[in-house]
Design a protein that fits this description.
With about 375 residues, the chain is mainly beta. The chain has a single domain, classed as Beta Barrel (Porin), CATH 2.40.160. The strands form two sheets. Strands 1, 2, 3, 6, 7, 8, 9, 10, 11, 12, 13, 14 and 15 form a 13-stranded antiparallel sheet that branches. A two-stranded antiparallel ribbon has the order 4-5.
Length: about 375
């Protein structure tokens, strides 16, 4: 598919789609706008701009990446009665790539000749890293960026975007990039440069059911189209699927600017479980992971600055292509967002620590950071 056709597709879909970044910021599912009555319908157009980067310090040469996303869309929501609601959220837009394209968390560089007499052997000199994400994320994730908690009804944590391309992750949603130094048996050098490469197209589609204001289930698809072969990137469609359950233990209405104290933080606590699967553009299954997390969200000051912390283990199963075993990493996220009129300014940090020092993988930290603005109309 040519760049011009992809651009036309993005522009045609823009008025009908939302960005996952709009879901990526705020407290948790316990807070938000008043629930729609049975039969009521609401639509909110959204535009999000986000700049983000990934830093894989656990890998040789510390590969980095940077990107700028412009996503366009809207949130469709229906009231089902008794506080229940159903929403369909989507996003599409260009992703300007510096370095390499974002990919699913934990991708490992393997020997291209591994299928010809070498099985799934992974060489020690191969790098991999966290995608990220997710978002909303997060994204976008992360920027979620990834990304599933309400801020005035439209700003839910979406690691599904950022983590997705972040995590994706962005996530995160997510959006970490990668490279490796040697390739195959020729020890061919690969560059970790972060020069501008091209413009890709990314998307996000989520169906979310909330039986009440404390519980919601979200199913997400995060496609990413690599527009041309370049370096380790192969033209084609990357895919990520996510299923996430979030339960708010309190009402989510914690504001230290209105006199709430530390003892009221319990009202901002939530727990979540997010399961994700990822495929590369050549069809290779990268792996899956499950993130059980505990988090807390609250507001401070008269400007209603939203702050969220969450963390937990990451149970990761790599694809057979990597030759790696299952492992348990540790992942978390810090989000800050500030509403300014119809806009929401946000920033997020998604660290991941991996204790496994294996062939093609290294012990240490990976980081994804991003900042941007979401406009709701």
């Amino acid at each position: 598919m040519s760049r011009s056709r992809l651009l036309v597709l993005s522009l045609l879909l823009a008025p009908f789609l939302t960005t996952p970044s709009v879901l990526a910021h705020g407290s948790h599912g316990g807070g938000g706008k008043e629930a729609l009555e049975a039969g009521e319908f609401d639509f909110t157009p959204v535009i999000t701009l986000e700049a983000h980067g990934g830093f894989d310090t656990n890998l040789e040469d510390d590969p980095k990446h940077y990107a700028i996303d412009g996503l366009f869309g809207g949130v469709f929501e229906w009231g089902l009665g008794n506080g229940a609601s159903l929403s369909i959220e989507a996003a599409v837009g260009p992703a300007l790539v510096w370095g390499e394209a974002e990919h699913f968390y934990g991708k490992v560089h393997t020997d291209d000749h591994g299928d010809h007499g070498h099985g799934d052997e992974v060489h020690d000199d191969h790098d991999d890293h966290d995608d990220h994400a997710e978002d909303h994320h997060d994204d976008h994730d992360d920027h979620d960026h990834d990304h599933d908690h309400d801020h005035k009804g439209h700003h839910r944590s979406a690691r599904s975007r950022r983590d997705s391309h972040d995590d994706h992750g962005h996530d995160e949603h997510g959006h970490d990039e990668h490279g490796h130094d040697e390739h195959g048996h020729d020890a061919h050098a690969h560059s970790h440069d972060t020069d501008f490469k091209r413009t890709d197209v990314k998307g996000y589609l989520q169906v979310r059911y909330a039986p009440n204001d404390r519980l919601d289930l979200a199913l997400s698809w995060l496609p990413y189209w690599v527009t041309e072969d370049e370096g380790d990137d192969v033209e084609g469609l990357k895919n990520e699927l996510s299923a996430k359950l979030t339960w708010a233990l309190g009402d989510g209405d914690v504001n230290f600017g209105l006199g709430d104290g530390l003892e009221d933080l319990v009202d901002g606590v939530y727990v979540s479980v997010d399961h994700r699967q990822g495929w590369e553009s050549d069809g290779v299954w990268i792996g899956n992971y499950t993130d059980p997390r505990v988090g807390v969200g609250f507001k401070v000051g008269s400007d209603e600055i939203n702050i969220k912390f969450e963390a937990g283990p990451r149970f990761y199963t790599p694809g057979s292509y990597s030759g790696l075993d299952q492992r348990t990493d540790f992942a978390g996220e810090v989000e800050v967002s500030v509403p300014v009129g119809d806009a929401l300014l946000f920033a997020h940090w998604q660290p991941v620590y991996t204790p496994d020092d294996s062939s093609g993988w290294g012990e240490g930290w990976q980081h994804h950071v991003g900042t941007g603005v979401t406009f709701s109309f």
